[in-house]
């Protein structure tokens, strides 16, 4: 490995952690909604014969994908 020449400034990566967009708060939705157990702690309603617990798990996945895509589209740097 070669060492940097003396007097050369080390290159640093640009951090995206400084992105303070309010859209990022929307990412809490797919975390909090599945934690609300009264939503899926029941057998009815059934959808195509599946109890609410199972089809709600798939709905939570769709909520997560949708919110993540929305936040990405709204916070990405254009140009």
What does this entry look like structurally?
This protein starts with 28 loop residues before the first helix and ends with a helix. With 79 residues, the protein is mainly alpha-helical. The protein contains two helices and no strands. The mean pLDDT is 83. It has a domain at 32-79.
What would you report as the Rg, rounded to the nearest angstrom? Answer: 22 Å
* Class per helix and strand makeup: mainly alpha
Order of helices and strands: HH
Helix content: 25-40%
Write the layout of secondary structure elements.
Elements: H1 29-32, H2 52-75
Observed structural traits:
mainly alpha
In short:
It is built from 2 helices and no strands. The protein is 35% helix and 0% strand.
